[in-house]
Design goal:
globular; Trna Endonuclease, Chain: A, domain 1; four-stranded mixed β-sheet; alpha+beta
């Protein structure tokens, strides 16, 4: 029974990571040897140098202490990666199940907007 629960949790976590990556068009998982970053994307804001956003994804609601620990682990992983030598501007974030509220809110507001009507040809 425990093996089935672990399998289900692992599968749900993978699906959630995929969902989070879909929220950002240029996001991808990054692998380098035994180093894995769940989500890496590039933000460009009228600046000469882009900002790399490195995210850890967890399928649960995290406490502030858990977030801090994961951010520290992310920074450590980043420093060991080859990407850290290519990009100097970086931002770290932890995405947990709270992102679902934001997505639900965005979808809800899109539904409340009145649809645009196209004139009928006839």
């Amino acid at each position: 029974m425990r093996d089935k629960q672990k399998l289900l949790q692992d599968h749900a976590s993978t699906v959630f990571e995929d969902f989070c990556r879909q929220q950002f068009p240029d996001a991808a998982r990054y692998w380098e040897g035994n180093l894995e970053l769940d989500l890496v994307r590039i933000e460009r804001h009228n600046e000469a140098e882009p900002t790399v956003v490195v995210s850890e994804v967890k399928l649960k609601r995290l406490t502030t202490a858990q977030r801090r620990r994961l951010e520290a682990e992310l920074e450590d992983k980043w420093e060991r990666s080859a990407l850290s030598r290519r990009y100097s501007k970086v931002r770290f974030e932890v995405l947990d199940s709270g992102i679902l509220k934001k997505v639900r809110k965005d979808v809800g507001s899109a539904r409340r907007r009145s649809p645009t009507r196209t004139p009928r040809r006839g």
